[in-house]
Request: fold
Amino acid sequence: MNKIAKPIALCTALAGMLTGCAVPGAFGDKVAPLEARLIQQLVSESCVLSRNYKKIQIQPDDVRVEGIRHGSFEGEHIAYIGVSNSNMNFKYIRHAALVACDSGYYVPSPTLIEMGNDPYAHVKHRHAEVPNTFEYKDIYKLSVQWDGYDEELNGSIRMIGNSRGTIVVHLPNGQGSCIGAVWTPPKISYGLSWTIRCPMKQAAGGSGPTHAQAINPGVTGESNPGNSNQISFVVGELE
Reply:
C-alpha cells in the first residue's frame, strides 16, 4: 500500500467508529479531510519555499488547505493553500498525475503515479456547466505545427476573463499533453502572449506572441526566434 493509501485506508476503516478522523494540518470546513491530506502530501512532495535565497522543504503538516475549486481542464482542481506566511494556489490533475505549484508549470507527481494515475493521459479543456466568477470563455480548437513532428497536432485554447487563459496540445503516440498559459502583456498593443511545456517530454515547449488581442478563429501564434523547438498554431472553430 502506498504512502497516501495507508492513512486514507486507516481513516476510512475508523470512520464508522469515530465521529471524525484527525487529519494533520488545517483545512477549510468545505474541504474533505482525505482530499486535504492528499493535497498536503502533494505540496510537500513537489513544492518548496524560498527564504533568504534558500530553498526550504515543505512538510505536509505545514500546509493549510483553505478551499478547492474546479480548474480550466477536465479533472483539474485548484487548491487555495497557506504555507508559513505565504498563500498560493496549488493545481493538480489527478487522472494525469500532474501537479503545479502556484504559477509554475505542470510536472509529474510520483505519488499520483503510484496511486495508479497515468501521466501520459490526454488533458482536455473542461466545458463549464454553470456560470462562475472566473468567467470561463468558449473553447477553440487548435491546429499545431511543431518541429520534430511530421503530422499536424491538435489541441485547444480558452480565455478566462479578458486577460489570461489556458492552452493544451496533444502529442501523438501516447506521449501525453503539453499544457500552458495565455496572457495579456504589459503593453497590450503587442497582442496576447503564450507559453507551453510538456511534462513528459523533458520540459520541451516554447513561448511567443499571437499578434492578436483576443482569441478568435484564424488567430495565429508562433515561437520566439530563440526557441529550440519551433511551434506555430492557428486557432480554429469552437470545440
